[in-house]
Amino acid sequence: SNAFIQVANVQNNEELARFDLSEDYSIETAVIFGEVYRHNGEWKFKAIGQGFTGGLEMLLSHFGIQA
After folding, report:
1. Taking the CB of residue 59, how many other CB atoms lie within 10 A of it?
2. H helix intervals, 1-67
3. CB neighbours of 13 closer than 8 A, spacing ≥ 6?
4. Is the separation of the CB atoms in 8 and 14 below 8 Å?
5. pTM above 0.90, yes or no
């Protein structure tokens, strides 16, 4: 409940990006909130919001990794 991810500038506490996870994810035991990556020399944040009911093992399996 009330889960979110926040990207902030630690030097001045400025919030750069925020993604609030809805209550629709209440049964998931592992969640990918988002991705932080560099593109053309700039940092980017992409909100994902993908849940997995099988926990970390299911999340790893999604990426082809055997736990």
Report:
1. 19
2. 55-62
3. none
4. yes
5. no
For the record, the structure tokens of 40 come out as: 């053309």
* Continuous segment of H or E residues that includes residue 35: strand 30-39
Q: What is the pLDDT at residue 23?
A: 67
Could you count the other beta carbons within 10 Å of the beta carbon of residue 21? 19
Task: List 45's β-bridge partners, or say none.
Answer: 36
Beta-bridged to residue 8, according to DSSP, are: 15
Would the CA dihedral through 36, 34, 31, 20 be positive or negative? Answer: positive
Extract the tokens encoding 51.
């849940």
The DSSP output letter for 59 is H
Mind listing the pLDDT tens digit for each residue in 12-63? 999 988 888 776 667 888 888 889 899 999 989 898 888 899 889 999 999 9
